[in-house]
Recover the amino acids of this structure.
């Protein structure tokens, strides 16, 4: 599976939040999980604020501690991912690989990875009741952002071999199956 990156993107107190989130896409999730920063309007931040400013106005959190937490979370996120090429190899080995689409029904019906199924509440219940917790489960979305949260949820429920498709169906279309049409969702901008 995807290896942990040894050279992490640079990060300092004067890093603007917009730049931090570009370098560390899961940073907002990590900051919210540990410090309750960035998950709602009352604890949100502006893209132009620096990490130091955000830390200062949130109980004067140590900048070095926040940076260490963001970088550790980033490395954990990398371990939860599978590349499109790795997924293609798994699909060749196993005809019953569990591949779940966490996008909307409309997106799934428009384009999906072959043999995947839309993740609904009914599907989740079936998985929790019948799937082996040691078998691979691959989750994907459009670009690989939202599926990471769902992956963490599955792992938290004991499905230890759950992975998120790095780059989502968009990367899969580019790297594995160009016959799958690429698209853009207006809300993503």
């Amino acid at each position: 599976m995807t290896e942990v990156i040894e050279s992490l993107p640079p990060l300092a107190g004067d890093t603007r939040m917009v730049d931090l989130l570009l370098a560390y896409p899961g940073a907002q999730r990590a900051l919210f999980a540990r410090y309750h920063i960035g998950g709602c309007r009352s604890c949100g931040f502006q893209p132009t604020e620096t990490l130091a400013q955000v830390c200062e106005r949130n109980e004067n959190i140590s900048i070095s501690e926040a940076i260490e937490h963001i970088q550790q979370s980033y490395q954990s996120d990398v371990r939860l991912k599978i590349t499109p090429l790795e997924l293609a190899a798994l699909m060749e080995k196993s005809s019953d690989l569990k591949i779940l689409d966490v996008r909307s029904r409309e997106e799934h019906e428009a384009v999906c990875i072959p043999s995947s199924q839309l993740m609904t509440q009914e599907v989740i219940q079936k998985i929790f009741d019948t799937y082996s917790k040691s078998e691979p489960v691959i989750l994907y979305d459009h670009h690989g952002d939202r599926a990471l949260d769902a992956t963490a949820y599955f792992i938290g429920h004991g499905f230890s071999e759950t992975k998120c498709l790095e780059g989502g169906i968009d990367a899969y279309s580019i790297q594995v199956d160009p016959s799958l049409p690429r698209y853009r969702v207006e809300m993503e901008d």
